[in-house]
Amino acid sequence: MRTFLLAGTDTSTVTMEWVLTNLVNSPRVLEKATAEIDSVIGQDRLIEEADLPKLPYLHHIIDETLRLFPSVPLLLPHLSSEDCTVGGYHLPANTMVIVNAWAIHRDPELWGADAASFVPERFEGEPASGEGKSNKDPHKLILPFGMGRRACPGAPLAQRLLGLTLGALVQCFEWKRDTKQEVNWTEGAGVTMPKEKPLTAVIRSRPIMMKLACESSATT
Ligand code: HEM
Known about the structure:
Layout (H helix, E strand, L loop, with lengths): L1 H24 L1 H14 L15 H13 L9 E2 L4 E3 L2 E3 L4 E2 L3 H5 L2 H4 L26 H4 L13 H18 E5 L23 E5 L1 H13 L1
Antiparallel strand pairs: 1-4, 2-3, 5-6
C-alpha cells in the first residue's frame, strides 16, 4: 500500500501542475477544452467518471502533457537479466538500462519540427490497435508509464484520476495567467520532474460552483 501511495501521488500531482501550466499558457486550448465540457456535460451537474470517454480533447491535453513533461522522465532503471540486443546495441547480462522517455517524446524525427510545442491536436484520430498497426500512431510513440512487464500498474487509475480532476477544474473555474508573459516552463530536479517554481494563476468560479455551493448548504 505504501509503494502505491508513494508511486501514485507525486507522479499525478506533478503531471496535474504541468497540465494547468500548459493550459494557462495556451488560452486557445483551454477554450476548446471548456467548450467540449460545456457541450457534453454543461453547467448543471458535476463531471462524472462515466463522462470521460465522451471527452476526447481532454485526453489529448493529458497525453500531450505526458509527452512533453513525463513525470518520470528517465522511467526507472532496469537490469538486463541475460545478454540481449536493444536497438542494435549488444547489452551483456547485468547491465543497467535507463530509458530517456523525455528525449524520445521530444525527438523531431518522431514528432516533427514543432516537437517542443504544446499541440494536443497531434493525438487526434483513433488510436491504432493490434500488432503491426501504424507506428505513426502518437499514442504508441509515448511511454510515460513505461512499457512491458514492469510498466506502471497504476496507469489506468492515473489516467482516470487526471481526466476527472482536470475535467472538474476546467468545468468549475476560469483559469488565467497572473502575469503578462507566459508561465515559465523550466523544469526542476528530482526523480519525478516538478516545475522549478510552483504554478500560480488567477481562477474565477463558473456558474456550476454556485449551484454546487447551494446544493451542499441545503444538505447541511
Ligand atoms: C501520472 C501518473 C503516473 C505516471 C506518469 C507513472 C509512471 C510510472 C513509471 C514510468 C514507472 C516505471 C516503469 C518502468 O519501470 O519502466 C512506474 C512504476 C510504478 N507505478 Fe506509476 N505512474 C503514475 C501513477 C501511478 C499510480 C496512480 C500508481 C498506483 C496507485 C502507480 C504505481 C506504480 C508502481 C507500483 C510502480 C512500480 C511497478 C514495478 O516496478 O513493477 N503509478 N510508474
